[in-house]
Amino acid sequence: MRRRAVAAVAALVLAAGCAAGSGNTPGSTPSSSGTAPGASAPGRTGEHAPPAKGSVRVVRTVADHLKTPWGLAPLPDGALLVSSRDDGTITRIGENTGKKTELGTVPGVSAAGEGGLLGIALSPGYASDHLVYAYLTTDSDNRIVRMLYDPRKPAGEQLGAPDTVFKGIPKGMIHNGGRIAFGPDGMLYAGTGESGDRGLAQDRASLGGKILRMTPDGEPAPGNPFGTSAVYSLGHRNVQGLAWDDKQRLFASEFGQDTWDEVNAIRPGDNGGWPITEGKSADPRFHGPLAQWHTDLASPSGLAYAEGSLWMAGLRGQRLWRVPLRGTETSAPPQAFLIGAYGRLRTVVAAGGNRLWLTTSNTDGRGEPAKTDDRIMEIEVK
C-alpha cells in the first residue's frame, strides 16, 4: 500500500469568509444576547421539527473497565471498536457479551496531554478491504493512518502495519482535535485543533484549527473550496465532533476558551472566526454557531445525529446535550440529560434508529473515575 503524506496546504490569502432519563434543562445556556439559543427561521419545505422536549433512557452498560476510551467505530456485525488514547490500542467489544479482544497496539503513538490515539473510522469499503483508519499523535505531528484488521489472527496481532495517508497536522499538549469520519460522499473528514497556537486557525497554510476533507487515500477531495487544499473550513479552536443529518448536512462541535462552546452547521469555505471571535458574532466575515454554551456546561467532544436532533457529549459539563433541528437551524432550545450521572462524556455514535452508543471519559486525568470506569453505554433517545 503506497504511503501518501500531506505535510502542508498551499498558502492562500485570508479571505473575508473565516441523571438518566431526566428531561431537566438546568443550564440550557442563553446566547450572547441573553436569550436561549434557538431559531425563528423555518427550515426547508417539508422538514418537520422534532418535539421540543425529548427523552433519554440508558438501556445498559455494554462494556466497562476501559482506559481512556476515545474513538468508537461500530462494526457491521454489531461489535464495536474502541481506541485507548493513552495505551494506543484498539479493542473489539462484543455488542451482546461485552467481551474485550485487543486487536493490537498502533505503533508510533506518542500520548501526552490531550494527544494520543484518538478518533477511529471504518473504510467505506470495509466489507471488502477491512481497513480501519485512526487519527493519532506522534512525536512530530498529528496524522491519519489506516491498518488492515484481520480477526483470524491471534488477539494482539490483528492489526496490520499502519499506512500513513495524511500527516503534518500540528500537535501540542492541548487542542489536537482528533475526530475522523467518512461522510455521505465517501470522503474522509477530520477535525483538527490549533495545538495551542491560536494564529494557526486563521492561517490557510496550516492544517491546525480546521475541518479537513480528503479522499480515502489522503488527497485533497475534489470540490474542496480552496483549490488543491484539504481545508474544508477554518477558524476553529478544537473540533472534536462531526455528524451529518438525514439531509447529508455537516455539523461540528468545538471547544471554546473561557466563554462559549459551540456546535456549528458547516458549509464549504466557512470561517468560524477563532481567535477573532468566540461564539456568536455580528461580524459578517464569520459563520456563527448553531448553538452555544458556557464552557462549564459543555466542553463538547463527540457529536451524533438521531431522531431529528444532534446529540453532543459534554466533558466538563458532564451531560448529554440534545439540539433539536429544523434544517440547519435549531427548532427549540437545547436540552440537557444525564447531568452528572456518569461523569465526563466523550464520544457519542449513532447505533441505528433511536439508539446511540455513549462513552465516558473519567480516566483521562481530568475526571473522577468510578470503580468500573470507563464504560460504553447503549441509550435510547427521542
UniProtKB/TrEMBL annotation:
The keyword Signal applies. Keywords: Signal. Residues 1-21 form the signal peptide. Residues 20-44 have a biased composition (Low complexity). InterPro entries: 6-blade_b-propeller_TolB-like, Glc/Sorbosone_DH, Quinoprot_gluc/sorb_DH_b-prop. Pfam families: GSDH (PF07995). Gene3D superfamilies: TolB, C-terminal domain (2.120.10.30). Residues 20-54 are annotated as: Disordered. Residues 66-366 form the Glucose/Sorbosone dehydrogenase domain. Coiled coil: none annotated. It comes from the Bacteria. PANTHER family: HEDGEHOG-INTERACTING PROTEIN, HIPL1 PROTEIN. This is PQQ-dependent sugar dehydrogenase.
